[in-house]
Amino acid sequence: MDAINWRRAIVPELEAKKAAALEAGDEEVHAHAARRLYLIACCDPETALAEFGKHRQEDPAEVRRLIAAGDADAREVDTLAALCVLVIEQAEAQREAA
């Protein structure tokens, strides 16, 4: 799950970094963010997992932060999904009662 949560958090961060670098005209930062984003989001799962392992070795604290952020996002998604189910169930119950 750590790699999944890491990916969930790092992809939007890299997207934002890439966009900010493009707007600032920083081609080097843009190219670096775009390359990492490609390796993590567009390649096969083995490549993404290799990037996770590499990142964990290079900056364990940053990876822990991203894992925690991804986990928080996953819990929020689960909460929203449960809420949607309840809303649908309530609407169906009201429809049946009418």
Keywords:
elongated, mainly alpha, 98 residues, 4 helices, single chain
Brief overview:
With 98 residues, the chain is an all-alpha fold. It has helices at residues 2-24, 27-42, 45-58, 60-97.
Q: Could you please describe the fold and organization of this structure?
A:
The chain is mostly helical. It has 4 helices and no strands. The protein has helices at 2-24, 27-42, 45-58, 60-97. Helix 1 (2-24) packs across helix 4 (60-97). The longest helix is centred in the C-terminal third of the chain and has 38 residues, at 60-97.
List the topology elements.
Elements lengths: L1 H23 L2 H16 L2 H14 L1 H38 L1
Question: Helix- and strand-based class?
Answer: mainly alpha
Number of helices: 4
N- to C-terminal distance:
45 Å
Can you count the beta strands? 0
